[in-house]
Predict the 3D structure of the following.
Amino acid sequence: MEAYLLNLGVLISLYAILAVTLNFIMGYAGIYSLAHAVFFGTGAYAGASVALNFSASIFVMVPTAMLCAAALSLLLALPALRVRGEYFVAASLGLQVLAVTVFAEWKAVTGGIGGLIGIPPVDIAGFEIYSPGSFFILSLVTLAAVVAITRLLVRSSFGRSLKAIRDSESAALAFGKNIALIKTTSVVISAALAAIAGSLYAAYMSFINVESFMLDTSVLIMAMVIIGGTGTQLGPIVGAALLLILPGALSYLSFLPQTEIGSIQQILYGLGMAVLMIFRPGGIVGRGRAETGEGEA
């Protein structure tokens, strides 16, 4: 039981990082992306490749993963963010579909459908982090660091510019804000931070393949943000914990057919988001759409 709880804790921490980083652009910049799993996967494959071929040091794996995800995000952000938000959603969906194909077919780097196996545990100053307990501590520390970074950014002048653009692009433009540059920078930061979770995920699982980075993962991360509360610090973490604990809780309900648990989960995710949008648009933690601009701190 202890091993199960530690494993669940690690996964919640890593997905919370993904939710926090997606919330950075969704909640504060009003940029909705369906490609966050791409940056998660890019970080995982980049980190795994470095660990398998060069070094498993966290000081090599993580920066490499962040650089790769940041570079990929530029390919999405530079053309898409020069137009209105709905075009970015379409562009991000296109990138998600394209990336899944690349992950599945680029066998020399990703291992194809079979994935990459035997990924060594992450190394910190000569100490290998392989036990669930040690990795849980590492994942919590990393989550705290990512939350602190996003909090500092949101409270900075850059964060205020993001919220100004979210609330009214025309007003922000009138005040001389470079909207395309600010949006692009926010997407790059979000992607780079998401890649941290990817590289740690690869080291923790010791095996990765394309199935972990498909469209349903991007939808799940978005659901975590929306259900927890967009534009809040705690909301994405609450959403990640809730949606990862839910499958385990459902499996203990004996009257539910175990073969249909996955479908039931999807129904509950969709129903939960629909109900929240109607009765509590700010999410579980949020206090309402009108207040998220002031209540995120």
